[in-house]
Structure formats: C-alpha cells, structure tokens
Amino acid sequence: MELTTLIGFLAAFCTTFAFLPQLIKVWKNKHAKDISLRMYIMFIAGITFWLVYGILIGSLPIIIANTITFIFASIILVFKIKYG
C-alpha cells in the first residue's frame, strides 16, 4: 500500500469515527436538543458530495470514509428529529 493511500485511510478513520461518541451519547440519552439541525443537514449534503467525488475519482479511502460518515451522521440526524 502506498504511503499516500495509508495516510488517506488514517485520516478517513479519524474523521469518520469521531462521530461515534456523539452517536452513542445521543442514542443512550435519547436527547439531541443541543445538536444543530441545520448543521447536520448541511454536513450530510457535504458528505454526499464527497462520496460522489470519491466514486468519480475512484478513491477507496474517500468512498469508505464518507459512506460510514453518512450513515453515522444520518442516524444522528434521525435522532435529532425524533428527540428534538
């Protein structure tokens, strides 16, 4: 594996799994009042564009990271809508 690809995977891992503690906290507490709805909507739109970009250029780190981030952020958004 090339160094640049490895760095891409490390960056993807860090930025993607940074959402996991927030997801777990919202899930456990059933409380999402302090999370910005607009921010998550814009963030998911951005992640969608990054995912499309990754697919277009064939970058596996970008595709994997943004797919997982999209899932995590979407779950948080659903909790935000559900729990206010």
Protein model, in words:
The protein has 84 residues and is mainly alpha-helical. The protein has a single domain, classed as Up-down Bundle (Monooxygenase), CATH 1.20.1280. Helices cover 83% and strands 0% of the residues. It is built from four helices and no strands. The protein is elongated.
Order of helices and strands: HHHH
Cα radius of gyration in angstroms:
14 Å
- How many helices in DSSP terms? 4
Count of β-strands:
0
- The coarse overall form would be elongated
Please state the average pLDDT score: 90
Count of the domains: 1
Termini separation comes to: 44 Å
What helical percentage do the residues reach? over 70%
Note poorly predicted spans.
Answer: none
Q: Please tell me the CATH architecture by its name.
A: Up-down Bundle
- Kindly identify the CATH topology: Monooxygenase
Structural class: mainly alpha
Sheet with most strands? none
CATH class: Mainly Alpha
Which percent range describes the beta-strand content?
under 5%
Offer a few descriptive terms:
0% strand; single chain; 84 residues; 4 helices
List the helices and strands and how they pair.
Layout: H1 3-17, H2 20-29, H3 37-57, H4 60-83
Helix pairs in contact: 1-4, 2-4, 3-4
